[in-house]
Design a protein that fits this description.
Elements lengths: L7 H20 L14 H15 L9
Helix pairs in contact: 1-2
Length: 65
């Protein structure tokens, strides 16, 4: 998807996903699940927040899965 067509929440999500992927590569991991910092990782936490924000467009939200 073109960056021009993305809203601010989608742009943030793309940025945070990229940061997460860089971290995974630097750690030599294919997934965060194998990382010892999984539950305390600021990079992963920022990515998860960006996912929720992109889904709710910043309005908060009660998502039912």
């Amino acid at each position: 998807m073109s960056q021009k067509m993305l809203d601010v929440w989608q742009q943030t999500l793309v940025e945070k996903k990229s940061e997460l992927e860089v971290c995974q590569r630097l750690q030599g991991l294919a997934t965060c699940m194998a990382c010892e910092k999984l539950l305390a990782c600021e990079v992963r936490e920022a990515y998860v927040k960006a996912v929720y924000d992109s889904m709710s467009k910043g309005t908060g939200g009660g998502f039912e899965f």
